[in-house]
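ok so i was messing around last nite and threw this chain in just to see what happens. nothing serious, just curious
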Amino acid sequence: MIPKFGSETALLLIDVQKGVNVLTHWGGPTGRRNNPDAEAEMARLLETWRTAGLPVMFTQHDSREAASPLKLSLPTGEMIDGFEPRDSDIVIQKDVNSGFVGTNLELRMRQLGVTRLVIVGFFTNFCVETTTRMSGNMGYDTYLVPDACATTNRVGPDGTDYNPDLVHAMAVASLHGEFCTAITADQAIALTKADAPDLERAQGNE
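result:
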């Protein structure tokens, strides 16, 4: 059974910025991404959390890399339309993959009494994965919503072009049952209203 999400449960949206869709930067000349519905699923979750009065947190990536489109000084560093933070939201600016490294994310969580995180955003295998791993290792009750995440193809050192669906699926498979519990957007929304007796937490290291 997974208990209902209450005031101790924050929705953490990772790097929902316009630059994630500069696909040639992330995947090379064949750049492409998976899950075109990710933003719509994130928006449903965001509306649910705001309507329920639950904590909402965003990370914004301000890359150290000269060529990155994820710089807050660039138009591509802006939030995707519809994901502009409100005054009541917590906004964490970061310059590495993890939302916890070099930021006050953990402090803000402690101040708000947040012990559970529901994580969505970009990219499944980069900042989402790194933040999820750290959240689980730090002892937070961590949930990943794969249908509200997306990534791009990746080109390996031997030139193999790995399809974004495969990259996404392998990241989720590595996280679920070890660092977090993966649930659907529908399940996360339902958990804001009631316990889920038919679901089981799968997070390890406990």
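not much to say yet. The chain is about 30% helix and 20% strand.
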